[in-house]
Amino acid sequence: MADDLWAEFRVKPTAAPESASAPSPAPAEDQWAAFRAKPEAAPAPERASGPAPAPAPPAPAAGSEAAAVGRGLLNGVPVVGPYLLGGVNRAAAAVRALQNGTTFPEELKNVEAFGEATAKENPWSSTGGELVGGVLGTAPLVAAAPAAFGAGVASLPVRMLASGASGATLGAADSAVRSDGDAGAAIAGAGWGAALGAAGPAVGAGVGKAVGAFTSRGRSNGVVQEALEGISEKDLESAQFLIQQARNLPGGGVALTLDEALNAVTGGQATRASQLARVVSNSGGEGGRIMNEVYAARPASVENVGKSAFDRVAPPNLKPTELGFDVQDAARAGISQTPEGQALSAARAAQAERITPEQAGQAIQTDLGGVRALREAARDSRANVDYRLAREAPETVGIERMVAVERPGEPIITRPEGAPRFSDAAPRPMDPPPVVEASAAAGPESLARFVARHGGLRLDGDVVATDLHRFNIPGMGNVAREGGKGIDNFWRERLIEAGYFRPDADGGAARDITNELLRKLQNEQRGVPSFPVDDARQAAAARGRQGQVTDEFRAAQSQAESSLDEALSRAGVPPESLSPEIRSRTVGALMRGEHVDPLEAYERTVGAMVEPPAPYVKSTTVTEEIPDVRFGQVDPRPALAAVAEQGRTAKGDVRGSLGSFGRDLRAPDGEIDLSVAGNLKARERQDMRIKRAQEFGDGTKVRDLTITRNALDEQLKRVPEVAVADANYARNSVPLAPFERPNAPLNRITARENAPGREPGPFRTPAEQVPEAITGPTALREALANGSAATREAAERRLSTQILDAVTDAKGDVSAETLRKAMRENADVLDQMPALRDRLSHLVVAREGMARVEASPLGRIAQRPDVKSAISVLFPSDPLANSQEEIRSAVQALARNNPHAARDMVRIYMETVFNEATQETKGIAKQYGGAGFASAIRGNGQQRHNLEAAIRALPEGDTLWTGLDRMLTTLEATGYRPQKGSDTAFNQAIQARLKEGKGTVGQAINDVVSGAVAGATVGGPSGALGGALVGGRRGGSKVLQERRVLKDSEAIARILTDPRALSMIRSLSRQEPGSRSAEVLTSKLIQIGGRGLSSASQSSASPTH
């Protein structure tokens, strides 16, 4: 219906481009705006009294085209038009009178003069407004009674008769009103109305031809009909919506032509429309200019629309390379927010806190050291009581012995003949062998001389068995003497300090040097002295000189004795009968060269003898041993026997250790020690020797010392109190076994540098070495079994730290495979720490679960801080099918953690593709850059889905996608812009028809113009004006034929580019041929095409500024 058609036209108006449309008529309430702005001055009448009013401003000579159209709209309404225009004139006059202080009649006269001048100066606008007013005024009547106006479904004669009657009535009434009731004018108006009304239905048939020219309903073969062949109403509606949507895009919009929109909505099926647009754009003239202006503005419009769309996504990022780090951080945060990431975070948070070796060692040492100290204190407190009772045990052991007693013996008579005496004339005895000794400043002091000078050895133990008490050093005394100093408590450290013995391997002086010392002293007694170690070379040289002198002395002595024995034998005196004193003096004289003849020397010695003194008597004391019994607490003789037995075959330092143990079993006076206290200490010292031998790994020594120790222990346990004390001590030592076992890890890490009578010293093992000492399963088991929760916690934390450090790379990522391998390698240890094993197992499972996440787009983005890499992950050129959900999840995670970074990355991607697609070629902007961008950004179907998923995942993504989708749809439509070339025959046919003005299109336009004029100018002056227009058309047909090509091209160009034309075409396609609505809509379509022609004519007639 007509009212519905106009409602649709009013709901969706679109502004035409400046090049393709003239200003639209102003509404009725605004038509006097120009007039109010420029009132004309008019002379004001004089008043009877009062001051003279100010002169009224003159009314303008003529109004603008808008004012002409507005007045024409009001005046063109049938019957009531003059009244409406008169009411408006009176209202304007009243307003001007109030504003200017003039009288109403004066202002009314000015307003009416203004209207007449406006109509005269703007005849086309005024006439067009009257046409529109006539249509608008008649449309409600036609809608109310269509049959009365020939718009029904009856036959053409019937409709012509009804239309003539209604036209006569309406024409008479309108003429009567306009002529103030003139009967002649009313009769003339009725005649015109009857004639034009009767012709209306016939003209409607022509309108049907026009409709067929613009749609597929017509049977003619016109250009437009062929161009729109197969285009449905739905396609036209979609095209109209697309054009409006393109023009309303942010950034100024994009102007789409009708052919581009139709191809876009039909998938390229409107090929003939494209060919028509191509011919028009390439035909020159005003039509070509209009089309080319639209195309020329296209690149800038695409640029503005694209930048506006990108700005809505995110503002420009001036540091795009730094964006990669933000995107990577957001991706990592997104990974951690996934169920797998949260599980991994929880598993890592559940791991034991990291700890250093020193921190762990301090905790373990403090705990285990305290445990050891408590257990030792408990054992010692009990042992102090038990062994005190053992030391107080009664003496129940008796040892038989021989006690030496003295009695007077026979006197000793000493006679002089036993020792010959000599006078001073006798030769002196033979000199001792000369000794080559170095002076104090020239050489070292021998070992025997050093010992004798510093007090000598005490005569006890093994010293007694030697002959050192007879070894006298002149001026120094005997090497061994009564009241001398002991080897263990004095000489061991003194001689090592003096350099006669090398110190122990650890720099100490704890080893037994008894056997070595006695051996060196005996060698020196035999003539081979020992010197300090550093003076060995000088002593060796001295020994060499001594040997030479001694050899020379012995040779001289042997020669003298041989000559003496030979001479005595010849003289008949047996050589063996000579007293040693006589022989010594005789040989000495021969060796010193006092006599050459041995007999002379012998006679001199014998002749110098003197008489012996009187004998003397000395009383004596006889010592005898008698049996006796000695009582004590324990009998250590089996232990001494064991020492003797093992000493028979012992070698090296084992013999010295056995000797030391034997001495420990004796009292200071040499007697066997029968006390419990003394033998307990002897056993204790033997235990220490065994412990040291075990530490050094000397199994032979351990065996021999253990045999003697067991022999003593067996005797001690015969004392009940000692047996009880040992049993309690052993029972209380069981918890301390891991701490006291030689080379045991707990022993090493808890041993202290204790000083007697002082507080416990520091631990011998550094704290940082403690965790390494208990890394083995056995050591760890003992540590956990004996330590408290602090030891377990420190050990678990340290092992956890070691494993996690080994399986964590430089980026802080844990390798599940490496962690599993580490757990397998430490399975024995982890079995003792089930809590740690479970935590690590959970971490392995959680880390393996991250493999899927890391393989996802979000995981690959998190691997590198590179924005290009991230874009290639989200928008690959060959995406996997159905991957849009993964893209959506990835972008959602990025936007959730850093919305700005997510927006920036999407903008950079789109803008990069846009810049590449729209770049200039040889300084000329790409006409198809927008379409290329849309094709590149959307790509195939999967790329399209991925892009939509990424955009919708952004904040306000649905809104962003709606706008972006509209822009891309518009840019895709620009790709249907026709190009030059091809379809030559069709192009030539179109140009021929436009040039000749014949055929369906030309005839349809003629009929449409005639029908529009006839239908719109109903009655009165309007009918006269219509007749004038028709006559003018026929009179200028020759001129129009010559310019038909250019003008028709211009009209088609304006129809293709003016968005209002499509609305008219849609409305025409829904009307019945010959209907009143078809007439009205066809006239409007003609106005769209003709407005440009009139404006072009006026512009050509006006001077150029």
UniProtKB/TrEMBL annotation:
Region (Disordered): 1-63, 557-580
Name this protein carries in UniProt: Uncharacterized protein
Biased composition (Low complexity): 15-51
Domain of life the protein comes from: Bacteria
Species of provenance: Methylorubrum extorquens
Phylogenetic placement of the source organism: Bacteria, Pseudomonadati, Pseudomonadota, Alphaproteobacteria, Hyphomicrobiales
